[in-house]
Amino acid sequence: MLTEKDHTAFHEQFVTSKGDGSLQVQPHASMFTPVYEELGNRDSKIVGVISSVIAFDAFMADLLPDKVRGIYSVMKNTCGQQ
User: Cβ(69)–Cβ(47) under 8 Å?
Assistant: First the structure.
């Protein structure tokens, strides 16, 4: 488990520009999946959960050339929201 200090240090290594670097605005996604007692049998008892948190800034750092000063993204989900 990361402490708040460790979490901040992790994100700070990806900061390449000025701005609000508070943890409240850092983009994250959480994913969870069940672990079943019998492999491949979704009707068997759930015996655990695998969880993961993905920090998007880790993947976005240094992705664009230095002269680019912003990027817009349009996201759409399976419910037709944009």
Answer: no
